[in-house]
Structure formats: structure tokens, C-alpha cells
Amino acid sequence: MNIISTLTALILSVFIYFASLITPFFTAPVPEMEQDDFVPVMRFVATSDTHIQTLGDTGCRRLSAMLKTAYAVSEADKDYNNLDAVVFSGDITDNGFISSFYSFAAITDNEIREGTERLAVVAKAHDSYTYLNNSRKVFTGITGQESDFHRVIRGFHFIGISRSETLEHYSAEQVKWLDENIAAAVKDSPEKPVFVFQHEHVKDTVYGSSETDGWGMEVFTEVLSKYPQVVHISGHSHFPANDPRAVWQGKFTAINDGGLAYFELAVDGRNGQFPEDKDRMSQALIVEVDADNRVLVKVLDVEAGKIMREFLIDNIAEENKEKYSFEKRKAEAAAPVFPEGSVLKYEKKGLLHYITVPQAEVSEDNEVFLYRLSVLNEKGKTVYEAWEFSQYFFSDTPESIVFDGFMKPGKGLTVKVSAEDVWGNRSEPLEIRL
Q1: At 241, is the pLDDT very low, low, confident or very high (cuts 50, 70, 90)?
Q2: Which of 186, 211, 226, 344 has its CA 20 to 30 A from that of 114?
Q3: Is the same domain home to 225 and 132?
Q4: Residue 9 pLDDT level (bands cut at 50, 70, 90)
Q5: What is the tens place of the pLDDT at every residue in 126-163?
Q6: Side-chain half-sphere CA neighbours of 283 within 13 A
Q7: Residue 30's pLDDT is what?
Q8: Are 21 and 97 contained in the same domain?
């Protein structure tokens, strides 16, 4: 072992020691599960966007909590109690500092047990802020792991692709490498899912990946579209993983992992919509596969220790999949409905006006996305409009939503509020005269 390797090992051992002092105070709850008839033969955790800055910060705490909860879920399964891998799809760090990579390595080395593989890709985003094209070398030097990988775990292929070591996000050589490795995986196990991990979403797949959402890339679209067995898992957008649009299917399957840091969403074709309390966001996926190659995706609210939603993907090898296509689900979705007896409540505080809206109802495979408020004058002309998220992205969704702080723009006004689901379907409005 040379001097640099010895020094790296020494520094990491110090970080691991302090990590062991920081992390044992979280007791993981065991979330309730829905798919009681699903018997796994393999299980892993997937997340991204840890955004670690320093040892013991929020990113470290959530990372530790995620791992503890994942082990608690695994141990509570009477049929299969292994946690086979933990996979991180980039933006492990917030600024790409060496100390941040050491903190990630320390927490994961301290928390991940024997028999669980740690895999990670390095992003051309926050991970590369400091060391740019050398960020992969920094990661490998500290963790001892390659950032482009192809592993076989319990007979299932895991392929990860990191940023290139050039000014490009991804090089032509990496596109070729990915194609060759997926082809080899499919040849080995044509009926099994092939899990592919990348930081960015594939453009025009999951919510967050469209041109207007702003967080998709199409460099691998052609390659991935050749293989229906691909299950592509990514982060980057910080869009919620429990949104029904977080799973997309076409020629392959794509899944948004949510991430551990904060929420962002897009509304009316505009991204950068940050909910109040966005920093409470902390999500990861617990992914299981059974003997029939069905994939069960459990969306975990890390802070609350609750499973928020489950997606059962049972058409892995099928070409041109429709089960989770946006077009099919949008066509089948019914508009939200306010429960019988629902009314708007009005309150005035000083010069400001507040409208409280009861939550509307949708089918279990849908979500109320937001509420739209319109204020109409005596002639029926709209004089004020606003919207508020339903807060469906938190596991403790409130019973009502408040439009607060708007100025009353006249006399003889009518307020109308409609509920809108994730597909754009709107309810009949509730009304109140001011």
C-alpha cells in the first residue's frame, strides 16, 4: 500500500469512527406493506441526490435513516429477509468536496452490512462542482469502487453509467459500452429485468423529464429502446417518486427515485415550482423482484418511515408496454370528486383573505395534484387566479389546503376552487360568495 492509499484509509477510518457515533440514535419503523402475495427473490434500495456537505448533516442523517429502514423492512419479511444492494444515482455530494465524499463513504461503510453491495454513479452536476472531470477519480480513490459498473446480484444485472471524464455529459464510448453491456445482460437472462442507473432521467419518460420540465437527456434513448427488459432508474429532477407519473413505460421502463434532498415540481409547463416545506422531502425506492420476474417498487418516505405508494411492474419482457404508459392512464383516469357536504371556508385577517379547501378524492392509482382558485366579479369575469399543491408528496397529507394572503379585489365576488389530478382532469368546483 503506497503513502496516498495509506493516508486515504486512515482518513476514512476516522470518518467512519465519527459516523458510528452520529448515526445509531435512529430507530427504524417497519412500514406497512400492501402486496402480501409478493415473495421476493432479490431486494435493493435505490435513491439519489443525497447532497451531503459535511459529516452529520441532513444528508448523512437521511442516508442513515434510509439504510436502517431498508434493513428493518427486509428483516420483517418472513419469506425473504435479505437486502442485496444499495444503489445511488448521482449527486451524492452537494459541492463535490473530498470531505463530502469521505462522509458518504463513512456513513455507508458504517451502515451497510455484509451481504449488501454498495453501488453508485457520479453525476456531472453537484458531484463535479469542485473536481470537474476528475470527480470520478476522487470517488474511486475514496471508495475503491468504479463509477461505471456492471454487477450480477442474485442473478439480476445491475448496470450504472456515470458522467464522462471529458467536457461531455457522456461520451460515445460510454454509449457503446452501455449498449454492449445491456446486450450481454439480456442474452444471459432474456426474461429478467436489467436495472440501469443514470443520474438524469431519459427525456420524455417520467415526470420531470420533458422539455418543459427541464431534467431529461436523450443520449441513451436509442440504446435503451432496443431492450424492453431495461428498468431505468434515475434522479436529478427532485420530482416526487410517489407521483403516478414517476413510473413510465414504452419500449422500456423508467422510474424516478425521488431522492433524499428536497422537492421540485412543474406546473403548467413551468419547472422550478418549489412547494412550501420542500426541504422535508426525503424519498427512496425499495425494489423487489420475485421468481416470475415481477418488479415491485415501494416508494419510501424516509423521514416518516412510511411506504407512500407501490408500483407492480409485471410486464418486463413485453415490447411496447402500456400498463404504465401516460396515454393509457390519463385516458382511464376519472376527475377528482369532493366528498359530499364539502364546502369552502372563508376567513379575513386584516386586509388579507383566506380560503380553506377540503381535500378531494381520487382513485387509489391517482393523486390530486393541485387546487385552482378563481375569483369572479359580479359580471362573471375572472379578476384573480391562484393554485396550491395538494401536498400529496408528503405521507402526512393534510385534510385541507389553504389559499392564504390574497387581496380581495372588489365587491360581490364569487370564489370557485377545483381539484386537479396529475393528469390534468378537474373536478366540479366548490363555490362561495364573499
Answers
A1: very high
A2: 186
A3: yes
A4: low
A5: 999 999 999 999 999 999 999 999 999 999 999 999 99
A6: 32
A7: 59
A8: yes
Residue 176's Cα: distance from chain center in Å? 27
pLDDT in tens, 357-397: 999 999 989 999 999 999 998 888 999 999 999 999 999 99
Position 338 in a domain: no
Is the separation of the CB atoms in 415 and 374 below 8 Å?
yes
Residues 28 and 144 placed together within one structural domain of the fold: yes
Number of domains within the chain: 2
Considering the domain architecture, whether residues 27 and 159 belong to the same structural domain is answered as: yes
Whether residue 394 is found in the same domain as residue 319? no
Show the domain range for 130: 3-331
Cα–Cα distance measured from residue 45 to residue 67, given in angstroms and rounded to the nearest whole number: 8
Q: Looking at residue 410, which CATH number applies to its domain?
A: 2.60.40.10
Q: What is the pLDDT of residues 25-67, one digit of tens each?
A: 455 555 665 556 899 999 999 999 999 999 999 999 999 999 9
Compute the distance between CA of residue 143 and CA of residue 5 in angstroms, rounded to an integer: 11
Tell me the whole-structure pTM to 2 decimals: 0.92
Confidence grade of residue 407 (pLDDT, cut at 50, 70, 90): confident
CA distances from residue 22 to 61, 106, 123, 297, 376 in whole angstroms, order as listed? 8, 11, 27, 30, 55
pLDDT in tens, 332-349: 999 999 999 999 999 988
Residue 331: how many other CB atoms lie within 10 Å: 9
